[in-house]
Amino acid sequence: MSSQLKLAVVGTGIFATDTHLPTFQKSPNLKPVAAYNRTKSKAETFATKAGIPENKVYDSLEDAFKDPEVDFVDALLPVQFNLDAVKLAIENKKPICFEKPIAANLSQAKEIVQLSEKTDLPILVLENWAYLKAIQVLKEEVIPQLGEIVAFTYNATGPWNDNNKYLATGWRQKPEHIGGFLSDGGVHQLALLTEILGNVKSVSGLTKQLREESGTDDILFSTFNLNSGVIGTFTYGSAFGATDKSTSFTIFGKNGSATYDWSPSLSKPKIVYQTGTSGQNKSEKRTIEIDEVNTFEQEFENFAEAIEKKDKKLIKVPPTKAFHHLAIVAAALESSSKGGSNVNVELP
């Protein structure tokens, strides 16, 4: 980048303080200059840590967007307010990035997509898993060796965490957004899946709520049919009793298979694959350990490049992609309400 971008942080809670601010502080090209939070004292605390002057801690969301010094807005609001933030961004000609899921429901999400298509402003949904290095390794180095891809199994399951610092967040305990934790965390999983294998056409799923604290259903067992004709299973939930946290994604081809495993028990994420047309005609297993990138840094680098070049096509996760991820969750919930019957994923 050739110049420093100045930004406003709106929504200055735990994630803004613990993740976004350290990311900005590592970059000489990004400088927080304004802040807003519904509870002003939280914005003031954040501003002190970020080196933002007192007169740049705003009393309203609108004032933060109107600040002429601000080049873009980083929004970490309860998702039901994402649509309002996007409208303010377009009204004030400010590029905006905002936290996932894209919106509280598909109606709001669809409106965000429509607004984004009518503006040249870069608009990024912060689904950082789309920037995982493992995606590139799988797509470029491994999958081409597996022949026609026909199926997959995706498993991301784990125990309930009593010490989850986000449990006290009111908008998560009493979610206004569809899916609660299923969409809040599930869109990460779906970003990874769809970046590698493509979009999902239909879902047959069953959900349950295991924890009252989740506010709504918190586990999903399902089967997916992708637009490409690939079929597979998708299992997600971190509300179980004592069990090992397991995150793995196996891809089956006519000429081999690959498993990407990023379980916490591993020292590094790894891809294990083998090629061959049968159990008798197969290669030795090969392992690639992934030196993973900082995906938060990657997404802000991506956003900054799009802003500087004034090219929204550079955005890795535009609203259209993020809509699809939430629409998959919506289809799974609808399927579960119908006893697991097949439901098509809605288009924006």
UniProtKB/TrEMBL annotation:
Residues 6-122 form the Gfo/Idh/MocA-like oxidoreductase N-terminal domain. Residues 145-343 form the Gfo/Idh/MocA-like oxidoreductase C-terminal domain. GO terms for cellular component: cytoplasm. Pfam families: GFO_IDH_MocA, GFO_IDH_MocA_C. One of its GO terms (biological process) is NADPH regeneration. One of its GO terms (molecular function) is nucleotide binding. PANTHER family: NAD(P)-BINDING ROSSMANN-FOLD SUPERFAMILY PROTEIN (PTHR42840:SF5), NAD(P)-BINDING ROSSMANN-FOLD SUPERFAMILY PROTEIN-RELATED (PTHR42840). This is NAD(P)-binding protein.
